[in-house]
Amino acid sequence: VSVVQYSQEPEVNLYLNTFSTKGDVLDAIRSLRHKGGRAVNTGAALQFIRDNILTAPSGSRRLEGVPQILILLSGGRSEDDIRGPVRNMKEMGIFSLSIGTRNADTLELQTISHNPKYAVSLTDFDTLPAVQQEIIFWINEASHHIPKPTKSARKDVIFLLDGSDNTRNTFEGIRRFVQRIVENLNVDDGSDQVAVVQYSKDAEINFNLKSFSSKNELLNSLKSIVHKGGRDVKMGAALDYVRDNVFTASSGSRHAEGVPQILLVLSGGRSSDDIRHPAQALQESKIKVFGIGMRNADVLELQTIASTPSFAFSVSDAESLENIQPKVSSLLNDLQERLPTAATLFGKNYDLR
Fold first, then answer.
1. Is residue 71 within 8 Å of residue 46, measured between CB atoms?
2. Could you tell me which of 15, 73, 88, 87 has the C-alpha nearest to residue 42?
3. Is the pLDDT of residue 151 over 60?
4. Which ranges carry the VWFA domain (predicted)?
5. Are 60 and 93 in contact (CB under 8 A)?
6. Averaged over 319-336, what is the pLDDT?
7. Domains of the chain by residue range
8. What pLDDT, in 10s, does the model give residues 257-283?
9. Does an H or E element contain 113, and which?
10. 155-346 has the same fold as 3-145
11. Residue 154 and residue 140: Cα distance in Å, rounded?
12. Residue 239's pLDDT band (boundaries 50, 70, 90)?
């Protein structure tokens, strides 16, 4: 059980893995203090829960097939947009129930809920005991009807990060973006593998595809990555480097088994070398490339390296990366179903080098 309060911004009272006994949870709930605040930003609160609570580090067992259930109690109409956050929650398979009172917007409650029938309007919260049994019934119903995920198709995902001086002050935002993407991958069951490489004048591997088989170990390693540094920015050389040294069987690539090979490039500035030929070589090798740029990144460069126009993204700064993370994660999930097998691509299996 987790509890979050929100007004202008959300505040965590307890995470899913804070307590392991019912007694401790009940004691913590009894000691809760009202958060306060005039603004009501339900949309921001829903997105916060998706990105920070329903994750493995916070105790979520979503990837183990455990139903994820959200019960929202609202006392007023939201002042921000809820549509995007609601869509993101539903895409993740989160089952939402909404309970509103006083000035809560009925349509808003129905929009947030998994189904309009799971939205309840009350005169005030003192009447909650009257609907308690109904809510418990719905929770049990959700637990039995939410489909458990099957073992997903496999993916090899490599992050190529601009580690030059261009990103020295924004590297923490880049790190958080990578962590959010990884949290939505299936690492623990062996389906997905992840590697991280930084580049400036030259490229440097932080860890390769076969370094970790545990998501927690991978996330912990991400936290300890040190910004590479360097004035020069040679993206072209870095693209060649990952193709020749990371997308290989010796580094853990499963390309010869038909596993999709995916490269996410995060750029903070224009490259000082040619990127056209390395980008073409990646396309010819059937590697799917995302180009993601911040601040001084060259939009044309991003479009050139991206496999399709929909794989090119440009944001104003690293903090804005979180706005595109759900879209990028969704595209990654689509790729695992659309990419052909090695036999289809090449007529035979061979090691990509």
1. no
2. 73
3. no
4. 1-135, 156-328
5. no
6. 83
7. 3-145, 155-346
8. 889 999 999 999 999 999 999 999 999
9. none
10. yes
11. 32
12. very high
- The neighbouring-strand residues paired with 291 are 265, 312
Cβ 338 vs Cβ 310: under 8 Å: no
Q: Which residues contact 325 (CB under 8 A, 6 or more apart)?
A: 51, 177, 180, 181
pLDDT score for 41: 94
CA dihedral 319, 324, 328, 329 (to 10 degrees): 80
Q: Distance between terminal CA atoms of the chain?
A: 48
pLDDT for the residue numbered 160: 97
The answer to whether 276 and 286 have CB atoms below 8 angstroms apart is no
| Residue-level pLDDT at 333 | 76
Amino acid identity, residue 40? V
* Domain 3-145 classification at class level: alpha beta
Pairing of strands 288-296, 312-315: parallel
CATH says 155-346 is which class? alpha beta
Residue 152 has pLDDT above 90, yes or no: no
Residue 241, helix vs strand vs coil: helix
> pLDDT value at position 338?
42
Residue of 126, 309, 273 whose CA lies nearest to 199? 273
Q: What is the spatial distance between Cα 220 and Cα 216, in angstroms, rounded to a whole number? A: 6
Q: 192: buried, middle or exposed (CB in 10 Å: 19+, 13-18, 0-12)?
A: buried
Phi, psi of 123 (to 5 degrees): -70, -40
Using CB atoms within 10 Å of the CB of residue 164, give its burial: 0 to 12 exposed, 13 to 18 middle, 19+ buried. buried
pLDDT mean over 223-230: 94
For the stretch 106-126, pLDDT in tens is 999 999 998 888 999 898 888
- With 0-12 / 13-18 / 19 or more C-beta atoms within 10 angstroms meaning exposed / middle / buried, residue 62 is middle
Query: What Cα–Cα distance (Å) separates residue 156 from each residue in 37, 83, 209?
Result: 45, 32, 7
User: Cα separations (Å) of 299 from 95, 163, 269, 304?
Assistant: 38, 18, 10, 9
